[in-house]
Amino acid sequence: HSTFSHLSTIITHKITSSNIFSSTSEEVFPGHVKLVNENMLKRTVWWRKIVASTSTRNDSS
């Protein structure tokens, strides 16, 4: 149980610090890292486009 809590803490810390591509996630998910990183990168780019267009709209109005 404490091992799961430790993993959750690591993952949460990586997400909140926007540092999910670090070596720690490779240690946690060695087999899936490349796929996870590519998916996260796509989502991050998509999310930044939304945020950028939203903030631009708010600034102009």
UniProtKB/TrEMBL annotation:
<protein>
    <submittedName>
        <fullName>Putative ovule protein</fullName>
    </submittedName>
</protein>
